[in-house]
Amino acid sequence: MQIDMKHTVTILDTDEQYVCDDEESLLHAMVRIGRKGIPSGCHGGGCGVCKIHVTDGSCRTIVMSREHISEEEERQGIVLACRAFPTSDVGLKVLGKMRKTVCKERKYGLV
Amino acid sequence: MGVMRLGHINLRVLDMDAALKHYENVMGMAQTDKDEDGNVYLKCWDEWDKYSVILSQSDTAGMNNIAYKVERDSDLDDLKKRVEDYGISVTDMAAGEMRSCGRGIKFNLPSGHEMRLYAEKEALGKDVGTTNPEPWPDDVKGIKAHWLDHALLMCELDPEKGVNKVAENTAFMRDALDFYLGEQVLVGPDGDIQAATWMFRTSTPHDIAFVGGPKMGLHHCAFFLDEWNDVLKAADIMAKNDVKVDVTPQRHGITRGYTIYFFDPSGNRNETFAGLGYLAQPDMPPVTWTEDQLWRGIFYHTGEEAGAFTTVYT
Questions:
Q1: Ordered domains of chain A (ranges, CATH)
Q2: Do B305 and A100 touch (CB under 8 A)?
Q3: How far is B120 from chain A (nearest CA, A)?
Q4: What digits encode the pLDDT tens for the residues A9-33?
């Protein structure tokens, strides 16, 4: 029987921590326990809002849109949190932004 | 005469196996064809033409093109001329270039999205047949979507730079393709900036919608369900299958539809759209939503933005 390995994830921007096992994406583990910090979008690697930089530790990744993560970025550990599964304890910085997160003024309703 | 309805949409997917699992097992579509390039063609049980969704393996998500079916072959010549007279160049497509379809034309909307028109597509028939049919088939999986209903395209909107592709698309669809305006959102200090529109050719509130955003893209494509209880059951099926739901069952003020927004495994947003909404007719006075009631229009119960509705799209 395979036992899932549990890893500690640290969002370095805020020093918040949560636990994620190696079969769950960094984003899914965060939203499942009601935590915030990494913007949550499509959870399919397509929209790009959950872009992070894994600066400490390592992750296994699955396919991500090249519109949002270039090959060079991927080599540097810049990934989408919905496509990244920790293989060790992880420290990350949030790069993706939801336009609404900082109460951005919308002069024209939608933009 | 002219455009009848939405015919098909070509979506880019990052993982074909995951996409097929979603569109077959969750949406309840059936694979009807696969071409030499690996594109997969699917139809819903209540559709008669061979396919309404084409999935193409890619390294990005989003929409490649959207195609509408016209009533007569001669409509293609008439509409080609009208699109060209409008100032948009048109490319002819030979029979078969769109798989299992007759000849067609393609052009880009002012927003940049590629639109195609065709008059003929191979028909396979509804799953329930045409003679003394049962109201629904037994052997369909998942939410049993009836048909591809409409798509919402995000169009560049930056009023301060004088860019409004929503308004440009809306004028083009009205003047060149005889689409009717069902509803619109007007924003800005003078309430005169068209920030979103819903347009129809069938008798339902929208066959296409345009919403303003920072860049062009696909906001969602929607699949029809009969009624509210089907929407609840569809949401149950999504939860069972760990589908990422963006907005749980709700009513729209705009179009009055019953909705769920969710994402396919590549992040393309899907919707289930249920209910008639209302009978849309060419002489129906268009409905206007003002900026202060914009979110009441989109999510009627809460009147607030929900999920990642305007911030996330492919």
A1: 6-94 (3.10.20.30)
A2: yes
A3: 33
A4: 999 999 999 999 999 999 999 999 9
